Amino acid sequence: MSLLVKGARVISPGDNLDKEIDILIKKGVIEKIAKGIKAPKAKIINAKGKVAVPGLIDMHTHLREPGREDKESLYTGSLAAVAGGFTAVACMANTNPPLDSEQDMEYIYTEAKKIGLVDILPIAAVTKNMEQKELTEAAKLKKAGAVALSEDGHPILNSSFMRHALEYANMYGLIIICHCEDKALSAGGVMNEGYMSSLLGLKGIPAEAEAIIVSRDINLARRTSGRIHIAHVSCKESVALIRQAKKEGVKITAETCPHYFSLSDEELKEYDANFKVNPPLRAKEDIAAIKEALADNTIDIIVSDHAPHLESEKELEFDRAPFGMTGLETSLGVSYGLVEEKVLSLGELVNKMSVRPAGIFGLDKGSLKEGDAADITVIDLSTSWVVKKENFKSKGGNSAFIGKELKARATEVIFSGRLVMENGKVL
Amino acid sequence: MSLNDNKIIMDKEQIKRALFRISHEVLEKNKGTKNLAIIGIRNKGAYLAARMADYIKEIDSKAVPVGILDITLYRDDLTTIAWQPVVRKTEIDFDITGKNIILVDDVLFTGRTIRCALDALIDFGRPKNIQLAILIDRGHRELPIRADYVGKNVPTSLNETVDVSLIGADAVDKVSVRKVGKQ
Amino acid sequence: MSDWKKRDLLTLESLDKDEINHILRTAESFKEISTRSIKKVPALRGKTIASLFFEASTRTRTSFELAAKRLSADVVSIHSSSSSVLKGESLIDTARNIEAMRVDGIIIRHSSAGAPRLLSAKVSVPVINAGDGAHEHPTQGLLDIFTIKQKKKKIEGLKVSIVGDILHSRVARSNIWGLSKLGAKVCVCGPATLLPPCIEKFPVRVVTNLKEALAGADVVIALRIQLERQKERFFPTLREYSREYGIDKENIKLAKRDVLIMHPGPVNRGIELSQDVIDGPRSVILEQVTNGVAVRMAVLYLLLQKEETNESIS
User: Distance between CA atoms of C307 and C314, rounded to whole angstroms?
Assistant: First the structure.
């Protein structure tokens, strides 16, 4: 069946497109972009007053399959992704067992195809079984479709090992996504180190635990000419290092998450473990620095770091609860706050949530032009909605945004030319 | 409040005479001050106890020990009253065991305060006996309690209240009765 | 009438001056009860208090239980070795179970900061924090302030120095908040490794030199040093710690002549305080223990009375 998106303001920064125009989709691809398209047999999506953008891409999620399907599965993760307006998500390697082989890549692609709601792009581990003893087979993994390599959650702290990993991955054009954390400095820490941690009597994680490894990885990237992508940047110290490295021409890109530019460590007053993430929510001045870095493209993309957990785990004492919050279904709404605050233009937001992720990781996505695979997200900017746990498609209810009112919400999602969400309902 | 519903039933002089008489009766009944001790119930009973001790000294030239009892923690209505009474100190710095205790309060009404006071006192020791001295007995007992010494019997209705003002706590010495509307 | 409005006692940081003073005044009345031969009043007769100690503490637990018993409340004591926490039951599950047994209040000691707060969000009865991680120990703070006030007749303007492991100390935090709210000038002193991050943003003066902390002090509160901190490399040796931060009869001369020496206990004799200082005339360590019962009686009375009252209104 063909689809006709009618009347939307189409914003596709990669194609220099920002106007009210119609999009006709046939056989999974964009057939035509023009004003006043007439297609009597097509299903019409009336998007008057809404915005249509290239399908959103989230390059950092934890879908928990295989191993912890009680927390999330590829299926529920896909549902959550569609509900959040995404047409592609990358899943991190730290499953149980970790995604470290050709078969694992195949498994993810096969399952994603069966589910058929979004593209799920596997990120492979840098080391076998994430044990940091042997490198994974990057050449094979690349062929099998790994979009990047990462030991997310467990940085390679042996600098020599990290150097080799970079040199090797670089040969196959694989980016290493760096979770930057000096584990000795952060040991036992559960929140940002500062006045709030002292007030609450919780052990802090200093910003330097992140910045020291960011600095190391920048140095190694410079030495090896390897490509690094800094995961979940949370503090002003990292921002300054990345900005400087980019000036010097180091092959570096960076991401941050909605919670790092919208929530500070003051939120932890109630000891609610839904606010417990790693890296931790930082201070107000870090939030300001992250916004500035988004505005000047020091930070390239926005990702959710979607990390679902069981309610029984998040109900634990703060220091015993696991790190992480969900994000797929709130990422767009929270990030749209940046447009409202005039940190980013709407086009720049689309860049950071679709165009740039595709560009950095070499995905054939993030654009809207005739002949492209039809991945399109239609967003209602005029709506406002309250985040409710019972409405989540994700198995994880551990969101720090529950009860908050957000603006902007994806109402229609077209994935590979198929309408997978209509009127806010996943089909 | 109009004058009609606030009737003065004792003035300064009448209060003095009543307490003086009670002091005499106490000395007479107990054959002097030997083993005698006076304990006033907070708040107004404490003032009356101190005055009685003065009168006894005036009459018999002997000082008797005086104490103050706070019965808040013994109240049987603690869980039903809508406010939380402020707990204050009990000040009894002598051993009450073997003593003839004159327990003093301003108004005897349901008898529940006295019940609390008896419980509280007995936690302090084992007096030889406890006698009750009251400035005003207004009736309406809910417990089998009666006073050994009474300043004045004042028949009242349940929608009246008896206010005792004593210098030290208030500006003047007087006892008045006023009507309180049922709410 | 009472000006007590709060359901729980979780921190001193969240109380205002009037509330702290109200507890102190109430405690004064309760102190007398412990001097009687029959040390018991019926104020909380028929009430049941659960005392949940997820972390060993004989002193605090005993003090709370005595306080409860002197108010005629029944106490069920659950400590971690006997509770199902070890069997994987979460704090919240344990709490819900205990509440289902219709207790009237919960006293909780826990090694995790914030555990009492978590509990109070899940149960409807008053929760009393008996110490949570490195967060607060409000009744210890109150009994320290009560002891100072009994001795010095005031708090405002006093120079109070807290010496030792401030970083891990919930006693220090409760004292910092309580004392500063009542107008004391609080100074904290310890090795830089044992001072909390951003301590200068607290209402305190911060020094690392013991002499500066002792100079002109009206009150010195020495904190217990956990012996394992040496292994965690917070300081080189216990000997050096004791030499640099131990209070003895020589250096205490820097303080005011009528200085009070306090310690939340148990004291490592000869390390935080020398033998002669502990047993000397300026030490009020045992009075702190005595006052602890009175303060905890006051807290239990104010909170448990209050709860019932609220219910009867609504």
Answer: 11
Active site residue A104: no
- Whether C10 is covered by a domain: the verdict is no
Per the domain annotation, does A217 fall within a domain? yes
SS3 content of chain B, % helix, strand, coil (to 5): 30, 30, 40
Give the domain extent around C118.
Answer: 17-137+290-313
Q: Which residues of A186-198 are buried (b: 16+ CB within 10 A; e: fewer)?
A: beebbbbbbbbbb
CB-CB neighbours of B159 under 10 Å: 10
Instruction: Tell whether A285 is covered by a domain.
Output: yes
Same domain, C116 and C80: yes
SS3 (DSSP) at B170 = strand
Query: What total of structural domains would you count in chain C?
Result: 2
Minimal C-alpha gap between C1 and chain A (Å): 31
Query: In which domain, by residue range, is A37 found?
Result: 3-51+372-426
Any idea what the CATH number is for the domain that residue C154 is in? 3.40.50.1370
Residue B171 has a CB neighbour count (10 Å cut-off) of 8
Whole-structure pTM value: 0.89
pLDDT band at B3 (very low <50, low <70, confident <90, very high): very low
- The alpha carbon of residue A257 is apart from the nearest alpha carbon of chain C, in Å, by 26
A271: nearest CA partner in chain C? C114
d(CA A260, CA A134): 33
Query: Quick check: C83 pLDDT over 70?
Result: no
Quick check: C2 and B90 CB within 8 A? no
* pLDDT tens by residue, A113-133: 999 999 999 999 999 999 999
Q: What is the mean pLDDT of residues C269-281?
A: 95
Catalytic residue among A119, A305, A375, A380: A305
A367 within domain boundaries: no
Residues of chain A above pLDDT 90, percent: 99
Buried (b) or exposed (e) across B97-136, using 16+ Cβ within 10 A?
eebbbbbbbbbbbebbbbbbbbbbbebbbebeebbbbbbb
Give the nearest chain C residue to A187 (CA atoms): C232
Q: How far apart are CA A360 and CA A354, in angstroms?
A: 10
Q: Identify whether A365 is part of a domain.
A: no
Neighboring chain C residues of A200 at a CB cutoff of 8 Å: 113-114, 135
Domains of chain B: residue spans and CATH: 3-78+92-179 (3.40.50.2020)
Rounded Cα distance between C224 and C59, Å, is 14
A141-181 confidence digits (pLDDT tens): 999 999 999 999 999 999 999 999 999 999 999 999 999 99
C-alpha B121/C-alpha B71 separation (Å) is 9
> What ipTM was predicted for this assembly?
0.93
Q: Contact B87/C301, CB-based, under 8 Å?
A: yes
User: C52 and C129: one domain?
Assistant: yes
